[in-house]
Amino acid sequence: MSISKVMVIGAGQMGSGIAQVCAQSGYEVLLYDVSDISLDNGMARIENQINRSVVKGKISGQDAKETLKRLQPASGLDAVKSCDIAIEAVVENMEVKKKLFTDLDEMAPAHAVLATNTSSLPITEIAAATERPSQVIGMHFMNPVPVMQLVEIIRGLQTSDQTYEAVKGMAERLGKISVQVNDNPGFAANRILMPMINEAIYAVYEGVTSPEDIDNVMKLGMNHPMGPLTLADFIGLDTCLYIMEVLHDGLGDSKYRPCPLLRKYVKAGWLGRKSGRGFYSYQ
Ligand SMILES: NC(=O)c1ccc[n+]([C@@H]2O[C@H](COP(=O)([O-])OP(=O)(O)OC[C@H]3O[C@@H](n4cnc5c(N)ncnc54)[C@H](O)[C@@H]3O)[C@@H](O)[C@H]2O)c1
């Protein structure tokens, strides 16, 4: 199956990054969001990023013009009828995603692939909301999408080889390196990353050392580019807690229990960078 036209649904942090990378790689792209403000902001963010690349000399003015021409906002979900693939990047909520996939399934052409950028929700369950589970797949990009090389491609129970190959080929054309992962809680990236972050939070909770020194240990001792607590603040502590709950519920092992300090911070509204306070202060 060949993919030439892409619809990205959700114009937030991830969706705008995905749309940008697709347009830069030669795909025709439609970007849709349920909120007009988010759609306008997403389009503006992409234009800004591309113009900055011109200023930095990374791409020519002509390339920028052509990239932006390939990217259009969509006024409704039914625009998917002209697309070969839909990549969903809306809120991390199973009910919202299931409803969206049922609607996309009704509107998309029969050959189209329906992909989700979920960081933790089961692909198999999302696929079950459609009549085409063999054409539903996880395409988990990392944040920020234009910078990070990895895409986890997650196969649901019924995802076909043809769907997998089409999406793998697309990831290559986007200049990404993909890994094939089966549909298990947290997939591979968050299964490994989140328990490490949770353990770093336990170390603060149990008074092992300060947040700064925990980050120093991992940066200077393990060569991580960012310490786990700085990274947790960047991801959002509410998101970290949510993913730990998914691991704990899905795998049923007490080693995945979220640290009480993480729960406490989220209850206090200390969500990291986005709220101005997490393990560090961003005032
Ligand atoms: N932020 C990350 O670091 C990251 C990394 C990998 C994957 N993800 C996943 O990507 C998805 C999006 O995350 P984000 O950080 O971009 O969120 P975000 O809040 O920045 O953007 C979500 C967008 O979806 C829109 N939206 C909500 N419901 C919609 C609907 N029914 N139809 C169309 N648009 C709708 C919202 O208006 C918003 O603009 C989530 O599933 C998340 O788990 C996030």
Short description:
This protein is α/β, with parallel strands linked by helices.
Can you walk me through this structure?
- The chain is an alpha/beta fold and 283 residues long.
- Helices cover 47% and strands 14% of the residues.
- The protein contains 11 helices and 8 strands.
- An 8-stranded mixed sheet has the order 3-2-1-4-5-6-7-8, with helices on both faces.
- The chain is globular and about 55 Å long.
- It starts with a strand and ends in a 15-residue tail after the last helix.
- The mean pLDDT is 97.
- Nicotinamide-adenine-dinucleotide binds at residues 9-15, 33-35, 38, 89-92, 96, 100, 117-119, 140-141, 143, 235.
Features:
283 residues, alpha/beta, 11 helices, binds nicotinamide-adenine-dinucleotide
Q: Order of strands across the biggest sheet?
A: 3-2-1-4-5-6-7-8
User: Which small-molecule species are bound to the chains here?
Assistant: nicotinamide-adenine-dinucleotide
Question: Please, what is the average pLDDT?
Answer: 97
Beta strand %: 5-15%
Give the termini separation.
50 Å
Low-confidence stretches: none
Query: Which percent bin holds the helix content?
Result: 40-55%
For the sheet with most strands, the description reads: 8 strands, mixed
Summarize the helix and strand pattern as letters: EHEHHEEHEHEEHEHHHHH
Tally the beta strands. Answer: 8
Which structural class is indicated by helix and strand composition? alpha/beta
Shape: globular
What is the overall number of helices?
11
Summarize the helices and strands and which ones pair or pack:
Blueprint: E1 5-9, H1 13-24, E2 28-32, H2 36-55, H3 61-70, E3 71-73, E4 85-88, H4 94-107, E5 113-116, H5 123-127, E6 136-141, E7 150-155, H6 161-173, E8 177-182, H7 189-205, H8 211-221, H9 228-235, H10 237-251, H11 260-268
Parallel strand pairs: 1-2, 1-4, 2-3, 4-5, 5-6, 7-8
Antiparallel strand pairs: 6-7
